[in-house]
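Friendly challenge for the regulars: who can give me the structure tokens for this chain first? No prize, just bragging rights.
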Amino acid sequence: QVQLVESGGGLVQAGGSLRLSCAASGSTFSINTIAWYRQALGKQRELVAALSNRGRTNYTDSVKGRFTISRDNAKNTVYLQMNSLKPEDTAVYYCNAVKQWYYSGTYYDDHYWGQGTQVTVSS
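First reply, four minutes later:
Bragging rights claimed.
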């Protein structure tokens, strides 16, 4: 099992910055990918940024150039630095970890989620 705890959300004016943190504990070895998702009110949860265990990053188009995902392995913590925030970035942000395992010719993904942290950007 993997436990994820997010922090760093809050209220910020448009153009401001926030840094979200996701502290992982438990069985953190062999996590393949760790990512940030967000869910705005009335909308589906969407992938914001992902970081693979090989260091590859992936961002949704709307945050490219503004958000940066990074990690501190010594602290088992992943960060999402969010700059130039816009009102449309308002959402609950969730940390997600994926552990992939192989059995009898098939790969399986186990997903773990944090409880979420609210980010509100005022215009």
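The mean pLDDT is 95. The radius of gyration is 15 Å. Your move, everyone else.
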